[in-house]
Structure formats: structure tokens, C-alpha cells
């Protein structure tokens, strides 16, 4: 292949994909919980994306990159199989556990204390998959429900119930910490 | 609508993902159900608490450079190899002279590659949301922003009074290294002024080149290399560089 074609492809890829580097890196940090693993995963994600860029016809670039990153991260999970569970696309046992815990206190009466970003990141890190990735994609990466569904390969209805569950879990963790620090 | 349904749909309501019909249904349920109303209020409050926190990460500069380096790079024609072969075949050229000429050829080659990277960086910056990392119309807030991010902070000079509005600064990547970019506006046109450190302290007078439809004026001064890139005309870019140089000289002497 002539050098110039290769370069032009790289140029188009650079312009389409590199603007999302921070988004991809953010998701990798939350999924892998390790800065250097996240860097490796993001680099691998971009290498794979470039390789498949010729056949890329959509969805939007951001969910497409996220879908690739997820695959890379799943491989990393498999490698660390002893310490983490892989992200499952199919609704598994976790999805069937009861969704709601009764609110112990009336949430209206409580005023949430402001927390610094580090403490919130830790609480998000502690969320179980697949709830965490759904939460991060929506709340931090600003994807629409439809885009999340594309990125994780699940129906929109599943995305909605995972998101509701994730937010309920995060709120519960938040309230528990509040209780703890009283 | 059941409470289980409402407790999922209220998130879609918060996220503005419901059509008007479903939004009305959820609101109607919430109006008559204290438990779901409390949940909505709680989630609103959570959203508020999360909104102010910096939860995004920024990719390290080294990662960006690694990815950039792994992409196919532009190569000017003819390649170095064919230039060298051309010299080798010219038997009339002495070895010494040839090596001198080759050195000159290689340096230009390198400059050509860097110029193409600078123009790529300019193109990237024109995409939505990528022009500036630090917004400003005030040089006193842009300059300190660069400190600690680069070995040498680029000179930030406000030329608004001279017709070139300072809009901000950005970290960019050229030749696999972090480089400062100071951003100006002339009417609706963007001018990126890229600044990098160089070992050479000699003065290199400004020279304009055109690449991919952009004008690029580059020069060297006080251990810094400058590239001003824009789609404004060559005359206007020359005017920009002249005013920048004059202001920089005044700053140093004043
Ligand atoms: Zn209800």
C-alpha cells in the first residue's frame, strides 16, 4: 500500500478518534482501577480501532471506541481472573438480585454533605459490574441511553435498569458513609 | 404505572430521555406516590452532588505521545534514501562535500516533517472543544497555566490592541513532544502559535511556507522555535508575526 494512503488513513483516524482520548482513558481508569493498566488498555484500544477503521461505519465514534475498550478490558479482566469478575453482556445473577432496598431514612430530610472528587471516585470504583460501567458511561462520559446500549451491546431497557440500580447503590454507599462519619 | 416501573423511569426523566407522553405518566405517578417522589428527590440531590465533582480523568501526555507515535507518519517525497542514493551516484561530488550537503538535506527533511506535524496539530485544534485548554483574554492567566506543564513556558503576549485577540492556550504534541500553543483570533480565523524549546540560540528570520492550504510562518529566537499557523493570508500572518516579535522585544527590553 502506498505510504500516502496509509498516512491519509492515519490522519483521518487521528482527527476522528484522538479527540476522545480523555473519555476513553476515563472509562479505562474506572473499569481497571489502575493508572498504568488503563494506559496500556487505551493504547491497545486505539491500535485496534485504527486496524478496524476502514470498516467503521458507525455508531458514533465515542460509543464505538468504548465498545473496543470494553473488549480490551475484558481481556485484561481474564488475565487478572483471580481478582476481578469480567463484565458480562448477558443479564446474569447480579441482574436478578432484588433491585430495591427500603430507604432507611427519608432522603428528603437528609442533606448530602459535599464530598471531594477522590471520595466519590472511590465509591464509584466500588460499584459492581455491569452497573459501574453503565453509570460511568452515562454520568461521566455523557452518553445517551441509546449510545450506552450500542457500546455495551445490551438492550436499552437493560441499560435503564442497570443505571437505576447503579444510582441506588451509589446513593446507599453515600448515605452509609455519611452515617459512618457522624 | 407500578412503583418498580416508576423507579426506573424516573432516571430517564432526570436524564431527559423520555418522550413527552411517558414523562407525563411518570410525573402523574410521582404526584400520587410519596415513596417514588422521595426517590426522585434523592436522585436529584445526588445528581447535584455529583455535578460539581471532577470525576473525569485526563490522559497523560506520555500516553497521547505513545499513541501518536504508533500512527503512520507523513513522509515527504522523495525519501531520504533516494536523495542519498542520488548523491552517491554523482561521482563528481567529493565525499566531504556530499556529507555536508546530505546534512543539509536531512535537516530540511526533518523540518518538513515537523512542519507537517504542526499543520496537523493546527487542524486538530479546529475541532469542536479542542482549541483551548485554558480560556483567556488576559495574558496574566494564560502564562501561569503553562508553568509546570512544559520545561519552558511559551511567551504569552496579548495582541488584542493590535488586532489579534488572545483567546487562550493549549498543550499540544509535535514531534512526539509536548509543546505549548498560544491561540489568537483574527476576525473568525484562528491562529495557533506553537512554541518549543531548541538548543540553538541563533536568530532565524521568519519564513512563510504553505502546506495543505495553511500558511505557516516559522522563526527562531532566544532558544525558542516558533510556528504561526493559520488560514489567514500570508500578508496578515506576516503582520501578526511582526507585531508579536516587536511586542516580545519590547517586553524583554522593558
Ligand atoms: Zn411509586
TrEMBL record, chain A:
- Every copy of the RNA polymerase sigma-70 region domain together lies at 20-80
Going by the UniProt record, its keywords in alphabetical order are: Sigma factor, Transcription, Transcription regulation
Q: Where is the RNA polymerase sigma factor 70 region 4 type domain?
A: 119-170
Matching InterPro entries, A to Z? RNA_pol_sigma-70-like (IPR039425), RNA_pol_sigma-70_dom (IPR014284), RNA_pol_sigma70_r2 (IPR007627), RNA_pol_sigma70_r4_t2 (IPR013249), RNA_pol_sigma_r2 (IPR013325), RNA_pol_sigma_r3/r4-like (IPR013324), WH-like_DNA-bd_sf (IPR036388)
Task: Output the Gene3D superfamilies linked to this UniProt entry.
Answer: 1.10.1740.10, Winged helix-like DNA-binding domain superfamily/Winged helix DNA-binding domain
Output the superkingdom of the source species. Answer: Bacteria
Supply the Pfam families for this chain.
Sigma70_r2, Sigma70_r4_2
Keyword Transcription regulation part of the UniProt annotation: yes
Q: PANTHER family, alphabetically?
A: RNA POLYMERASE ECF-TYPE SIGMA FACTO, RNA POLYMERASE SIGMA FACTOR RFAY-RELATED
Give the family this protein belongs to, as stated in its UniProt record.
Belongs to the sigma-70 factor family. ECF subfamily.
NCBIfam families according to UniProt: sigma70-ECF
- Entry protein name: Sigma-70 family RNA polymerase sigma factor
**Organism the protein comes from:** Bradyrhizobium zhengyangense
Q: What is the lineage of its organism?
A: Bacteria, Pseudomonadati, Pseudomonadota, Alphaproteobacteria, Hyphomicrobiales
From TrEMBL, chain B:
Transmembrane helix as a keyword of this entry, yes or no, is yes
> Which Pfam family, an example, fits this chain?
zf-HC2
Alphabetical keyword list: Membrane, Transmembrane, Transmembrane helix
Q: What sequence ranges are listed for the domain Putative zinc-finger?
A: 3-37
Does Transmembrane helix appear among the keywords?
Answer: yes
> Do you know which Gene3D superfamilies this protein is assigned to?
Anti-sigma factor, zinc-finger domain (1.10.10.1320)
| Listed transmembrane segments | 83-106
Protein name per its UniProtKB record: Anti-sigma factor
